[in-house]
User: What shape does this take?
Amino acid sequence: MVLKFHYIKNKNNIFQSCEVNEKYKFISFYLHNPIDCKKFLKFAKKALEENLKKDISGEAVAAEVDIEENKIIMYDIDTYFDGDEPDELLEIKKEDLIYILDRWIKFLEKPIIDENYEEIFEMEDPVVKVLKE
Assistant: This one.
């Protein structure tokens, strides 16, 4: 999986963005969580690092922590609230999500000096399971 952190210019504003293959969309959706983003992401990272039994779901993505298997299961949060089984899941190792969160938080905290600046890095592919077609 390749992740690309970069900036998007919209009129007079510049926003941070994370690009990832559509197959891994839940990671991008999770990182773009709109509720006080940095505060939420720092909370999620700490909860994962310290094995706290906290809900780290975002606004668009449900994120269930499987402590025994050391992984995070992500899926569309609307499915979660509807009580339905998800059509698709993304499973990522806990340490991989912690690493991504750490890099993303640092990217968000950097002053924007060059709007063309980007960070690109590769990681092991998470598992994507399509449960319903």
The first strand starts at residue 2 and ends at 10.
